[in-house]
Amino acid sequence: MPRLIERIAEAKRGRIDARRSAVIVAHPDDETIGCGALLARLDGVQVIVVTDGAPANGIDARTHGFADIDAYAAARARELDLALSLAGVASSNIRRLGLADQGAAHALPRLTRTLASLIDALGLAAILTHAFEGGHPDHDAVAFAVAAAVERLERPVEVVEMPFYHRAGDDMVLQHFADVGPCEVTLPLGEAERALKARMLAAHATQAATLTPFSTAFERFRPARPRNFRALPNGGAVLYADRDWGSTPGSGR
Question: Which residues form the signal peptide (predicted)?
Answer without folding.
Answer: none
